[in-house]
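Figure 6 in text form: structure in, sequence out.
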């Protein structure tokens, strides 16, 4: 197997389940040593670490709230001390609202703040503390995980769309600031993907099977994506295969955004 990340050290936030776990596992198979960040899903993070070790890789669990500067500083220093530096950062952590409707007229301000703190501020903070380590290594790669909701609006997703749209423009802005440091910054925008977040939403519907089919049918490829498919695109951006690409936001959505389809409620 051609190990595209051999010798690299990577931090993956929100790596306890779904897309984050798929990215961490794929990176490890390609030779990277992995910092597995989680916040509340510690058991999930432990499973990700076990999976990596069982496949012959190296990983360390780094529980932390990425919206906390103190937490982020500690986790980055711990990762750098454990493996000798940081070369790759994947800002994958993301949440939605849980208590109130995600509409400007309905949302609780605390919920709005928490979504923006985790989804956008968290990406800024991890980048802030990781970039100095990348400079010491002569460069690096940052891959932000946004969403098709960072490219197209959607009813009842005010804070989520705002945070993911902000991540797309933060990607482009950081790509400009840190190109001289040989740090590339790119963004992957997943479409509907088989994750815990999507499954939770589907199971709340009156007809989960019908809702699942509706999501699949909105993409021209007529299916929902998998975490492994997203991880492969992240690997591309994190590797030298994309050495002349920075500041790009790539939809990985089965063609959804090409058609400009939106959910109407």
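Output sequence:
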């Amino acid at each position: 197997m051609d190990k595209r990340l051999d010798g690299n050290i990577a931090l993956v936030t929100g790596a306890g389940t779904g897309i984050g776990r798929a990215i961490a596992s794929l990176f490890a198979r390609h030779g990277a040593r992995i910092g597995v960040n989680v916040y509340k899903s510690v058991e999930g993070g432990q499973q990700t670490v076990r999976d990596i070790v069982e496949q012959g890789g190296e990983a360390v669990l780094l529980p932390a709230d990425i919206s906390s500067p103190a937490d982020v500083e500690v986790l980055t220093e711990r990762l750098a001390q454990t493996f000798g530096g940081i070369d790759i950062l994947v800002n994958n952590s993301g949440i939605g609202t849980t208590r109130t409707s995600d509409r400007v007229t309905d949302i609780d301000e605390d919920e709005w703040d928490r979504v923006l703190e985790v989804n956008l501020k968290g990406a800024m903070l991890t980048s802030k503390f990781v970039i100095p380590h990348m400079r010491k290594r002569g460069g690096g790669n940052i891959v932000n995980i946004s969403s098709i909701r960072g490219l197209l609006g959607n009813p009842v997703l005010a804070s989520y769309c705002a945070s993911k749209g902000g991540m797309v423009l933060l990607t482009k802005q950081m790509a400009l600031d840190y190109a001289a440091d040989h740090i590339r910054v790119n963004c992957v925008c997943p479409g509907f993907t088989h994750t815990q977040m999507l499954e939770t939403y589907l199971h709340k519907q009156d007809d989960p099977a019908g809702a699942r089919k509706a999501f699949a049918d909105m993409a021209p490829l007529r299916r929902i994506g998998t975490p492994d498919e997203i991880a492969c695109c992240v690997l591309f951006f994190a590797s030298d295969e994309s050495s002349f690409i920075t500041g790009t936001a790539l939809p990985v959505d089965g063609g959804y955004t090409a058609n400009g389809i939106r959910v109407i409620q």
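Caption detail: Residues 109-136 form the longest helix (28 residues).
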